[in-house]
Structures are given as structure tokens and as C-alpha cells.
């Protein structure tokens, strides 16, 4: 559903922000999504090398296309003299929402080997974590909080947790209660923060000024 939402947001972008005919990238993304659903139609319990490559490729395609759309949007703003503040504001919000979705998916796909590994592989065999969630350090809290900690309840983060990380990083421009641990997590959060900052401060501010 998150992937389909990102595809839909791209479909409704203004034509001048697209790097290819409108339906080319969404069609490619759907083609990548179909076998992923076929491998795990109900729950993510199976993972093959092909599955991993397809899922990461899908996220990369969405991320790159959205960052390109943001780049074109900023170029249009600076050099094309855009005068339609309403369409500019809507396009900026679409890019910003897609940014949240795609980085949430990226964190979900990469952390501790991916969603299948996190639920199917023993903790001792998992790769090093990319993020430290608050549940990972609640063992010594009050009982009702400690009962939900990772060590006590075998809690693992879900897509909603990573989308929350993405939302807070796109609004606060920094981590909040979830800390990046690995170099790649810090790099990805940096890219997301900068792109969200540009969208918020430059594009949306300019669109509002045009409306006034």
C-alpha cells in the first residue's frame, strides 16, 4: 500500500517534473512490485536473493525519481519564473509525502537485513542494526514499559515504525527518539533531511509567497 501510494503521488505530478512519459516509471515500479507480492502474498516470510534485489531496486527507482522531481522543481522555481503558486505548492507536497514514504520503505528494507530477516532469523544471527529504537533500551524502565522492550517481548520494528522515523526526520530535520547507528543510515537520513528542508523552506515558502 505504501508503494502504491508513492506511485500514485508520482502519477499526479505536473508533466514538467517528470523525467519520462507519465506512465513509464509507474509501470516499471508495478512490474517490480508484482513478483514481490507473488513471493509473499500475505505475510513476509520468504526471502530469496532475487526477492531482495527486486525490493531494493523498487525502492531505489522511487527514491531516485522523486529526488529528480525535487531537483526539477527547484530549477523551475529559480529559473523558469513559475507564477502558479497553487500548483507549485501541491507538487511540493506530493514530493514531500513521497519522500516520507520512500525513505520509510528504505529504512524498513535495510535495517537488520530486511523485514523477513527481522522476523524469521534469531536475533543472535541478525546483521548489525542500522537504528536504535526506544524499545531497545527500555529493559530497566517501569514494569509496564519494560514488558514491551525488545529483550522482554521479542519486539521488532514494523513498517509503521520506520515510517514514523521518516516522518520525524522530514519534519524535525533530525532524529528524535530513534537514533541512526550505521554510516548508511546516517547518510540516508542526511539526504532525506536536506531534501525535506529544501522542499519546506524553499519550494513551499516560495509557493505561498506567490499565492499572496
Description:
It is a single chain. The protein is mostly helical and 212 residues long. 66% of the residues lie in helices and 2% in strands. The chain has nine helices and two strands, in the order αααααβαααβα. It has helices at 2-11, 24-39, 49-79, 85-110, 115-120, 143-146, 150-153, 159-172, 183-211; strands spanning 131-132, 179-180. Strands 1-2 form a two-stranded antiparallel sheet. Helix 2 (24-39) packs antiparallel against helix 3 (49-79) and helix 3 (49-79) packs parallel to helix 9 (183-211). It is globular and about 55 Å long. It starts with a helix and ends with a helix. The mean pLDDT is 87. The chain crosses the membrane at residues 20-39, 51-75, 87-108, 194-211. It comes from Streptomyces olivaceoviridis (Streptomyces corchorusii). Keywords: Membrane, Transmembrane, Transmembrane helix.
For this entry, give a set of tags.
single chain; 212 residues; mainly alpha; two-stranded antiparallel sheet; 2 strands; globular; transmembrane helix; transmembrane; DUF1345 domain-containing protein
How are the SSEs placed, and which strands pair?
Elements: H1 2-11, H2 24-39, H3 49-79, H4 85-110, H5 115-120, E1 131-132, H6 143-146, H7 150-153, H8 159-172, E2 179-180, H9 183-211
Antiparallel strand pairs: 1-2
Helix pairs in contact: 1-2, 1-4, 2-3, 3-4, 3-9, 4-8, 4-9, 8-9
- The stretches of 5 or more residues where confidence is low (pLDDT under 50) are none
Shape: globular
Helix and strand run: HHHHHEHHHEH
Reading side by side through the largest sheet, how are the strands ordered?
1-2
Protein name: DUF1345 domain-containing protein
Organism: Streptomyces olivaceoviridis
Transmembrane segments: 20-39, 51-75, 87-108, 194-211
Keywords: Membrane, Transmembrane, Transmembrane helix
Amino acid at each position: 500500500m505504501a508503494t502504491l501510494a508513492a506511485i500514485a503521488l508520482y502519477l499526479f505530478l505536473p508533466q514538467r517534473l517528470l523525467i519520462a512519459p507519465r506512465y513509464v516509471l509507474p509501470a516499471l515500479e508495478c512490474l517490480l512490485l508484482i513478483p514481490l507480492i507473488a513471493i509473499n502474498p500475505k505475510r513476509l516470510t520468504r526471502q530469496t536473493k532475487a526477492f531482495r534485489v527486486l525490493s531494493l531496486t523498487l525502492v531505489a527507482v522511487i527514491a531516485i525519481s522523486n529526488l529528480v522531481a525535487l531537483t526539477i522543481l527547484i530549477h523551475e522555481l529559480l529559473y523558469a519564473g513559475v507564477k502558479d503558486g497553487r500548483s507549485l505548492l501541491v507538487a511540493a507536497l506530493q514530493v514531500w509525502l513521497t519522500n516520507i514514504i520512500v525513505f520509510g520503505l528504505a529504512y524498513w528494507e535495510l535495517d537488520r537485513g530486511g523485514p523477513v530477516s527481522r522476523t524469521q532469523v534469531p536475533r543472535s544471527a541478525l546483521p548489525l542494526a542500522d537504528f536504535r529504537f526506544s524499545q531497545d533500551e527500555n529493559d530497566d524502565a517501569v514494569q509496564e514499559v519494560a514488558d514491551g522492550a525488545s529483550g522482554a517481548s521479542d519486539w521488532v520494528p514494523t513498517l509503521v515504525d520506520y515510517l514514523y522515523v521518516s516522518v520525524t526526520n522530514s519534519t524535525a530535520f533530525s532524529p528524535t527518539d530513534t537514533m541512526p547507528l550505521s554510516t548508511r543510515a546516517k547518510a540516508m537520513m542526511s539526504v532525506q533531511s536536506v531534501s525535506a528542508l529544501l522542499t519546506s523552506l524553499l519550494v513551499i515558502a516560495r509557493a505561498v509567497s506567490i499565492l499572496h
